[in-house]
Sequence to fold (135 residues):
Amino acid sequence: MMTLSCHCGQVRLEVAKRPDHINQCNCTLCAKSGARWAYFDPADVSIDGTTAKYQRVDKVDPAAEVHFCANCGSTTHFTLTPSAVAKFGNSLLGVNMGLANEQDLAGIELRYPDGNAWSGEGDFSYVREARLIGS
Fold:
């Protein structure tokens, strides 16, 4: 079990397990929100506290709603939009692992997907080689 919180502590997330990997995407939304995403089944994440949310306005049909603490503004997680849930099911929730203590992430692979070049279909290409956190 991992417990994470926003800067002020008003939003807390508990995840059932450590992630297999973390993505540090370079798309404008991820870069500007400062997020390092790990992906979980929504049933494996507990969220407590009040968040505000944001959907991209530069996409016709955005797939994610980014949540952030309504008090301190820390990006906490993302959920799928209703249209994405209709297409894929409620199968994915992203947690900002930037909220974790770095030592708790030691040994997890950090990947660098090229979200700026991603078409929205298929797999990501990467802007650099992955590394293990803490090494």
About this structure: The first strand starts at residue 2 and ends at 5. Helices lie at 28-33, 82-88. The chain has two helices and eleven strands. The mean pLDDT is 92.
